[in-house]
Specification:
The chain is mainly beta and 100 residues long. The protein has two helices and eight strands; from the N terminus they run E-E-H-E-E-H-E-E-E-E. Strand 1 and strand 2 form a beta hairpin.
Length: 100
């Protein structure tokens, strides 16, 4: 299954492959998404999840705390879409919405 993600702030749609992170999908398609480490250590891609579900891959606890998760934050470099509709507000680039 793949997802279509729309980055609203730059009016761009991207495709997110199964088991692909939101960050990898954006970078693969030329989106200048803020990031640094790509493995959950720096927090540069921290974004707010507005709706839907993602699987959080392994990351450092201080980069994304349990409280931040409860407040709706994700790391785009460690977030794999797991629902039919995923929306998040990208770090420094605005909102992203994903659809199957």
């Amino acid at each position: 299954m793949s997802y279509k993600a729309s980055i609203l702030s730059i009016d761009k749609d991207i495709s997110v492959n199964e088991e692909e992170t939101l960050l990898d999908a954006a970078l693969r398609q030329g989106v200048d998404y803020p990031h640094s480490c790509k493995n959950g250590r720096c927090g540069a891609c921290k974004s707010r999840l507005l709706s839907g579900e993602v699987e959080h891959l392994t990351h450092l606890r201080f980069t994304l705390t349990e409280q931040e998760k409860a407040d709706g934050f994700i790391l785009a470099c460690r977030a794999v879409p797991k629902s039919a509709a995923v929306s998040h507000e990208g770090a420094g680039i605005g909102k992203v919405m994903a659809y199957p």
